[in-house]
Design a protein that fits this description.
eight-stranded mixed beta sheet, 27% strand, alpha+beta, elongated, 15 helices, 24% helix, single chain
């Protein structure tokens, strides 16, 4: 099977691709359904690791998901591209080989299969997220429903001449609609509407209906969840929706996950927490580490790394809650939201201020965008206006931006180039995880029939075993657990069958050698455990050391 990254796959073919990957690379990949969507489609998760070096659950793991929002199809492509990079480069690239030998990935390429399927229908239906009717299971009786009214497979805009309209044609580029000046009168103006069908039109007033499918799955996570009157689309209660509940359940039952990334579109940025509070409220060490990861992300992807709260709020007086930030807010593991694709930058707009640009920008930016669309999309990104006899509104013109093609996702011929930005940074974020490794295991005779067993382990990873200060404050891990298993005839004289060796620091959160602070715990990445046993030479004692985040060691020692 040849998997191409210049197109989007509907669910049946998408599922076939995942099954093919798992069947073709069984030593690296396995597949499972972690639940069913509202319409009954499988929510697939692929586990990637070298099973010959141990199961995924014994290794630190990194989570990746995409396509929680219905039309953000490039998120699935980015996940598939990463899977393809792993399986085709294992054994060829040292970093990927080392990563899969020592770490694991859990990859959910399409978290919302229903919404994606609607977006890819022959006559697309573009909704925010889930296809479940919410908050009411009824059709609107009046107003405009956004849809492909003329059946050409696109959802564009409609313009109607109106002396009091807010829009006019650009004086030299007449295809382009620009705002009418505040004190301007006497020209040809238009009222702009989304393409769609009217219900019970009174001949004068138009309201654009909200989608009957009003859920936003990325408002349904537990952290900071708020009711509908405060947070539109959040659902009736946290994890009420099967897609979110399946992911939360999976992550809660896989405590070896040390970080996560969720793919969205579009803006061309790397978003970090918090979404609800300023940087000053974050533990300082976590903020420093987030900024370090962000610098690395910008270096590797070309995308700026920014704070959601400080630079990406939809309104300066509002915050968004119930998002995938949950994994940092509650679990304390480092989370990034990647907004794939920025057509503004592609068009040469350098002073791009993320959300603010959509509220207001100079007309020169519109001209740059139009020139880019003409050049790269050959007239398909911005459609010239054409006449249409609307069944309720009468004569209108349809045209303008095809947002699904130009904005919501990279166009097909640019898709692979865009998603190829991310594998290196994902690998970096996975490889900074804590990693429990054996330093020494000895059994020394101290008296007739008595042996002292000594275990020394260390964290060879960059991050501490507890991952973040937020996780530590929330008791999200319990330290390294050491356990001894004795064969018949061997007696434990001193020590515990199971004991806690504590948390292990990593190389993160350290000052420079120029600092006036002295590192008083230079071996805080190591821990020692001792037992005293009675037995005879040749007896074999099994030892296990494990940490929820840093992995597990299964070993043995022979009494001599």
């Amino acid at each position: 099977m040849e998997v191409k990254f210049d197109r989007f796959y509907r669910f049946a073919e998408f599922s076939e691709i995942l099954q093919w990957y798992a069947a073709t690379y069984p030593e690296i990949l396995s597949i499972e359904s972690i639940g069913k969507s509202f319409e009954g489609r499988d929510i697939w998760v692929l586990t990637a690791t070298n099973t010959k070096t141990g199961p995924a659950t014994d290794k630190p793991a990194y989570w990746i998901d995409g396509n929680i929002h219905a039309s953000e199809l490039a998120a699935t492509t980015a996940s598939l591209y990463f899977i393809n990079t792993l399986v085709t480069q294992y054994g060829k690239r040292e970093d990927i080989t080392r990563c899969l030998d020592s770490r694991a990935f859990y990859i959910c390429p399409r978290m919302n299969p229903d919404g994606a399927e609607w977006a890819m229908r022959d006559s697309p239906k573009i909704i925010r997220s889930s296809t479940r009717p919410y908050p009411y299971d009824e059709e609107p009786v009046d107003g405009l429903n956004i849809e492909d009214i003329d059946g050409d497979g696109r959802i564009l805009s409609m313009r109607i001449p109106d002396a009091n309209g807010n829009w006019k044609c650009h004086p030299t580029e007449t295809r382009l609609m620009i705002p009418r000046e505040p004190t301007e009168y006497g020209g040809q103006y238009y009222r702009m509407l989304p393409e769609g069908r009217m219900n019970d039109y009174d001949g004068f007033t138009v309201k654009v209906n909200k989608d009957k499918q009003g859920l936003d799955l990325n408002r349904n996570f537990p952290a900071g969840w708020r009711q509908e009157f405060e947070q539109f689309g959040a659902g009736p209660y946290p994890t009420s929706e099967p897609e979110v509940r399946s992911v939360v359940h999976f992550m809660a039952h896989h405590p070896n996950i040390t970080g996560g990334l969720t793919f969205h579109t579009w803006s061309g940025v790397l978003l970090r927490p918090s979404g609800t509070s300023p940087d000053e409220d974050m533990p300082a060490e976590d903020l420093w580490e987030y900024k370090r990861q962000g610098v690395k992300g910008t270096e590797m992807t070309g995308y700026p790394a920014i704070s959601t709260y400080h630079e990406f709020r939809y309104h300066p007086k509002e915050v968004i809650t119930g998002t995938f930030n949950w994994i940092y807010d509650h679990l304390g593991i480092y989370e990034w939201t990647v907004e794939i694709w920025c057509p503004m930058r592609e068009a040469g707009i350098t002073d791009y201020k993320y959300i603010d640009w959509f509220r207001s920008h100079p007309v020169e930016d519109d001209l740059k965008m139009l020139a880019w669309a003409d050049r790269e999309l050959k007239g398909r990104g911005y459609v010239d206006w054409y006449k249409f006899d609307h069944p309720q509104l009468g004569p209108v013109e349809i045209g303008g931006w095809d947002k699904l093609l130009a904005f919501r996702n990279p166009p097909p011929h640019l898709l692979e180039k865009e998603v190829a930005r991310f594998p290196e940074w994902i690998l970096h974020n996975a490889m900074i995880s804590p990693k429990l490794e054996l330093v020494s295991l000895t059994a020394d005779a101290v008296a007739d029939g008595a042996y002292r067993i000594q275990l020394v382990v260390q964290n060879t990873g960059y991050l501490p075993s507890y991952v973040s200060k937020r996780a530590k404050a929330r008791n999200q891990s319990r330290g390294v657990i050491a356990e001894i298993s004795l064969p018949a005839g061997v007696e434990l004289v001193n020590g515990k069958v199971r004991d806690n060796m504590g948390e292990l620091e990593g190389r993160a959160y350290k000052h420079t050698l120029m600092s006036f602070w002295t590192d008083t715990t230079p071996t805080a990445d190591r821990a020692l455990m001792e037992w005293m046993v009675k037995g005879k030479a040749g007896d074999e004692v099994n030892i296990t050391a494990r940490h929820d985040k840093a992995g597990a060691i299964h070993t043995k020692v022979v009494l001599k």
